[in-house]
Amino acid sequence: MGLRPGCEFQTETFTNHDLITINDGSQASPYPSPIVVSGMTGNIIKVTVKLIDISHNETNDIDIMLVGPDGQTNAIIMSDVGFTNAISNVTLTLDDQAPTALPDTQDTPVSSGTFKPTNAGTVLDPFPGGAPQPSGGDMLSSFNFTNPNGTWNLYVVDSQGQGDAGMIAGGWELTIVTSTCTP
To answer: Tens of pLDDT along 143-180?
Structure first.
């Protein structure tokens, strides 16, 4: 992001620290988990998401979609990763500029850190109950050049009913960078 004369940049972090319960074989509760963004000027040039204190018996069951305030722009930010490994108290920051994707092998469980948003599955998992049709791929840059203000929604689903469940105990954070410059 080079500075251009007359451009203004703004970076803000918005949070929803409410517990998200990941129900076995079903949508999470709450569904979706919202964050209201207001007071930002310009259009988005970068978005990152932090998922705080995730635990689950089988990580690859978790599917997460972020939906922007227009209700249509979205990205599958985590899906089918971690193989069948359990995780406990993991905090993930998802950033398109991270050096690596989330792991999806038996030998490498998901651990705390910063990773690229990752959809490791070959089949697009459904998001029930009023979620929009996934259309944004897995890159957070799909939100670039849109208006950041309004309600953002995080849809979390456990895609397999296998007697396991989990939670995102610390909720989530959304960091948005905007610019008043036109692309």
So the answer is: 999 999 999 999 999 988 777 889 999 999 999 999 99
Enter the tokens of residue 33: 């988990």
**pTM of the entire predicted model:** 0.93
Does 30 sit behind a cis peptide bond, omega within 30 degrees of 0 on the bond before it?
yes
The predicted pLDDT at position 1 comes to 46
Report the length, in residues, of the chain: 183
Please provide residue 24's backbone torsions phi and psi, each rounded to the nearest 5 degrees: -60, 125
Strand, coil or helix: 177: strand
Q: Which stretches does DSSP call E strand in the chain?
A: 9-16, 20-22, 33-37, 43-56, 62-67, 74-79, 87-94, 113-115, 118-119, 150-158, 166-168, 172-179
Q: Across residues 87-96, what is the average pLDDT?
A: 97
* Lookup: tokens for 163: 């007697």
Class of 9-179 in CATH: mainly beta
Name every residue whose Cβ is closer than 8 Å to that of residue 35 and which is 6 or more positions away in sequence: 14, 15, 16, 151, 152, 153, 154, 172, 174
- The domain spans of the chain are 9-179
